[in-house]
Design goal:
Elements: H1 2-9, H2 13-18, H3 20-42, E1 47-52, E2 55-59, H4 61-73, E3 78-88, E4 91-101, H5 106-124, E5 130-141
Parallel strand pairs: 4-5
Antiparallel strand pairs: 1-2, 3-4
Helix pairs in contact: 4-5
């Protein structure tokens, strides 16, 4: 066994890459990586909202994204929102990517969107550790007339 290992280690790079041992190692790594990705995709991720004596309340990322999408739909000039959730320490923050109409006032939209989302997250859902909203403008659409 040790002799085979020494023979493998002393082989040229071309011989090592073409060897059966190398191919088996690559297949094992790819199999483990695939299993890890499948498990990670299947496992539902739950974000903590708050915890009290009665128990814990959690929310799924898809429900949180839906809340942001509905908040954006009520603001004129905001289109195609997409949300990314990020966790810094114990706080949960949101990056909201939007497209706005060309005649929109960016500062008003940002303030309105931030206030609306913070109202939902802090007052309605009672998020313990809300880290705020970052608004990213991805593009512009034609004005709605």
């Amino acid at each position: 066994m040790i002799a085979k290992l020494l023979q493998y280690l002393s082989a040229s790079p071309k011989e090592a890459l073409l060897s059966f041992t190398f191919l088996i190692g690559v297949l094992i790594i790819l199999t483990l990586l695939t299993i890890w990705l499948v498990i990670r995709k299947i496992r539902p991720v739950l974000l903590p909202v708050f915890k009290d004596q009665a128990g814990a309340v959690q929310i799924t990322p898809s429900a949180l994204k839906e809340l942001v999408r509905k908040s954006c739909s009520s603001i004129p000039g905001v289109n195609l929102p997409s949300t990314q959730i990020f966790i810094k320490g114990k706080s949960i923050g949101l990056k909201v990517r939007i497209r706005i109409t060309t005649d929109s006032r960016v500062k008003e939209i940002r303030d309105s969107l931030s206030k609306k989302i913070e109202l939902i997250m802090i007052e309605n859902l009672n998020f313990d550790q809300f880290g705020g909203v970052d608004v990213i403008i991805e593009g512009f659409t034609k004005s709605e007339k």
